[in-house]
Amino acid sequence: MREIKNLLRHIYGAGILFFYYMKWPIVLGLPVLYFYLDYPRYWVLDLLWIYSLGLIVKDFAVMFLRYKRGEKVWR
Predict the structure, then answer these.
(1) DSSP alpha helices (H): ranges in 1-75?
(2) If we measure between CA atoms, which residue out of 17, 24, 68 comes closest to residue 49?
(3) pTM passes above 0.85
(4) Cα–Cα distance for residue pair 37/30, rounded to 1 Å
Protein backbone atom coordinates (compact mmCIF):
# COMPACT_ATOMS: atom_id res chain seq x y z
CA MET A 1 0.00 0.00 0.00
CA ARG A 2 2.85 2.35 0.80
CA GLU A 3 4.42 1.76 -2.64
CA ILE A 4 1.15 2.70 -4.35
CA LYS A 5 0.90 5.87 -2.27
CA ASN A 6 4.47 6.84 -3.20
CA LEU A 7 3.81 6.09 -6.87
CA LEU A 8 0.69 8.27 -6.88
CA ARG A 9 2.63 11.04 -5.12
CA HIS A 10 5.33 10.91 -7.82
CA ILE A 11 2.75 10.96 -10.62
CA TYR A 12 0.98 13.93 -9.00
CA GLY A 13 4.27 15.83 -8.68
CA ALA A 14 5.22 15.09 -12.26
CA GLY A 15 1.79 16.32 -13.42
CA ILE A 16 2.21 19.57 -11.52
CA LEU A 17 5.63 20.19 -13.05
CA PHE A 18 4.45 19.21 -16.53
CA PHE A 19 1.50 21.59 -16.54
CA TYR A 20 3.46 24.39 -14.84
CA TYR A 21 5.91 24.51 -17.72
CA MET A 22 3.82 23.20 -20.63
CA LYS A 23 0.42 24.91 -20.36
CA TRP A 24 1.39 27.95 -22.45
CA PRO A 25 3.19 26.00 -25.21
CA ILE A 26 0.21 23.61 -25.43
CA VAL A 27 -2.40 26.38 -25.59
CA LEU A 28 -0.45 28.38 -28.18
CA GLY A 29 1.18 25.55 -30.10
CA LEU A 30 -1.67 23.12 -30.67
CA PRO A 31 -3.75 25.52 -32.80
CA VAL A 32 -0.63 26.19 -34.88
CA LEU A 33 -0.17 22.46 -35.39
CA TYR A 34 -3.82 21.94 -36.32
CA PHE A 35 -4.51 24.94 -38.54
CA TYR A 36 -1.16 25.81 -40.13
CA LEU A 37 0.77 22.55 -40.21
CA ASP A 38 -2.20 20.24 -40.97
CA TYR A 39 -1.56 18.01 -37.97
CA PRO A 40 -4.32 15.39 -37.64
CA ARG A 41 -6.84 15.99 -34.85
CA TYR A 42 -6.60 13.75 -31.81
CA TRP A 43 -9.12 13.89 -28.98
CA VAL A 44 -6.53 13.38 -26.24
CA LEU A 45 -4.64 16.47 -27.37
CA ASP A 46 -7.93 18.39 -27.51
CA LEU A 47 -8.64 17.44 -23.88
CA LEU A 48 -5.09 18.40 -22.91
CA TRP A 49 -5.60 21.78 -24.61
CA ILE A 50 -8.90 22.41 -22.79
CA TYR A 51 -7.36 21.47 -19.44
CA SER A 52 -4.36 23.74 -20.04
CA LEU A 53 -6.64 26.60 -21.03
CA GLY A 54 -8.62 26.08 -17.82
CA LEU A 55 -5.42 26.24 -15.79
CA ILE A 56 -4.47 29.53 -17.46
CA VAL A 57 -7.92 31.01 -16.78
CA LYS A 58 -7.64 29.86 -13.15
CA ASP A 59 -4.21 31.52 -12.81
CA PHE A 60 -5.57 34.84 -14.09
CA ALA A 61 -8.63 34.60 -11.82
CA VAL A 62 -6.47 33.92 -8.75
CA MET A 63 -4.14 36.77 -9.68
CA PHE A 64 -7.09 39.17 -10.15
CA LEU A 65 -8.72 38.16 -6.86
CA ARG A 66 -5.47 38.63 -4.96
CA TYR A 67 -5.08 42.05 -6.54
CA LYS A 68 -8.63 43.01 -5.54
CA ARG A 69 -8.03 41.92 -1.92
CA GLY A 70 -4.73 43.80 -1.80
CA GLU A 71 -2.69 40.68 -1.08
CA LYS A 72 -0.40 41.04 -4.05
CA VAL A 73 0.81 44.12 -5.87
CA TRP A 74 1.64 43.91 -9.57
CA ARG A 75 5.03 45.31 -10.48
Answers:
(1) 2-35, 43-69
(2) 24
(3) no
(4) 10
